[in-house]
Structure formats: C-alpha cells, structure tokens
Amino acid sequence: MVLIDQENYKSYGRCISFKTGNIKLLVTIDLGPRIIFYGKDDQNIMFEDLQDTTNKGGEFFDKNLKGEGIWHLYGGHRLWKSPEYMDTYYPDNKQVNVIKNGDDVTFTSVVETTTKLQKSMVIKMNDDGSVLLTQKIENKSNVKTTPISAWGLTVLDKGAKATIALPDDDTGFLPNRNVVFWSYTNIKDERINLNNENLIIEQRNIVDPIKVGLFTQKQINVDIKGQTFSLQIDKKVGTYPDFNCNIECYTNNHIFEIETLSPLCELAPNECLIHNEYWALK
Predict the structure, then answer these.
(1) What are the boundaries of each domain within the chain?
(2) The whole model's pTM is what?
C-alpha cells in the first residue's frame, strides 16, 4: 500500500511523500517541482545540491526575468524543454500547485513569462515502489510554438553506472544505431565504455564533463548505492533532438544525469505535449 503525505525535507521545504515498504519518493512543492528523493532504506539515489554549487544567472536573467531570480540546479528530477537555449533555464523557484486525485498527484509550475509554457508532472507510485511519471508541457500562448521536445532530466548522485542497451535490429543496408558526442567530450574518456551490445557510462571523480546521446527503445539500468534504478520511456515514432537522441547521459565529478526526450513537435495554443517515464528500484 502506498502512503501519500507531506513532510519537510532539509532546505527544500515542504515535500509530498510517497512511501511503500522500504521505498520512498519526495517531490518539492515550495519550488520546482523536483523529485528530490527516490530510494530504498533512506538511501537517496538523487543528487542534492544543498551547497548550490550549480546555478545560472547573468545578463539574460537580468533583462528577461526580473523578479524571478536565477536558475538553480537543486538536484533530483526536473522537466525541461529541448532544444536547449537560455530560455530553457527558466527559474523554478516558486511554489508549486498540487492536486491529489486518488492515487495520482499532479504538480504544476507557474506559466513561464518568456516561453508561455507551463510544465507539470503527474506521479503515481505502485505498491512495489515503481513509478509512472507523466510529464506535460502546455502552450499557454496564443501562437504556435517552434518545434520543442519534453526533456526529463534525472540528476543522480555520485557513483552511478548506467548500462544502455544498443539497438540490435537487422536493418540490412541501413544503419541501426547512433551514438552522439557533445563537443566538450573526449571520445576516449575512461568513463565511456562502448561495445557492440551496450553503452556503459559511469560517474567518477573527474572534473571534465562528458555527454553522450543515442536512440534506444530498451530499458536503461543504473547501478548506484547498492540499488538498481531502471528507467524506460514510451516507444514513439518521430524526429528527436540532438541528432535523433531520446536518451542522453551527462556526468562530471559531482553528478550523473540520465536524460530522456520526446519527439519534437509544434504545440498549438492550449495544446499539451506528454512524455512518460517508467521507474523502478531493485
């Protein structure tokens, strides 16, 4: 049985808690929303940026976002829009609207003044601790958007190691897989292990960041803190961002990110983009 309640958590303030057996998930409501805790036996697999080591401010924020503050990493899982531009970094520093409907809880942020987008997460935890995370981006403007993708970023703590199965379809004369590297990534970096079956990336105490993306319709498994975090997304046909990636990994000496993306689409006024993730812990 899943118990849904409210508790204060560290400097993040009020959170909605989901608990079943020895598994707990916390979602911030005084900021975000962020899934700031997910783990077994009080071992949080999410990164918590309690020292505010990662933030973003400057001229764009001073000019376009007066009164909104700067963007903070905070940690945990967040919903963004892709492609990545400065307006992607909209500060989510305000209180979140919360609606409980049976076993589901919906967390909705304010409408962004720059993009006129509104983001929300609907979270449902099952008795085994697995989670259905329904992420939504709604166009609150009166004009169609440029092509955008829903972008779910899960910021995990140190020591994470992800195994991502590569596509193995027999496509004959056509290619069957892609692996994409960002410009700051050393392809020979020791944190990257690429073979015929899997892409394996692990977090280590190395300052230089790396980021790798690919397209796969298989489950992703991340080993961290004696737990295995499994993640999968819906199989959808379409054009994806970043040279057709629906999964991306970023890591440095502080964090490990698993990022998922939906196909690109243009949203008409009041139209909503939905991107599902399926989580589990073992």
Answers:
(1) 3-155+263-281, 158-251
(2) 0.95
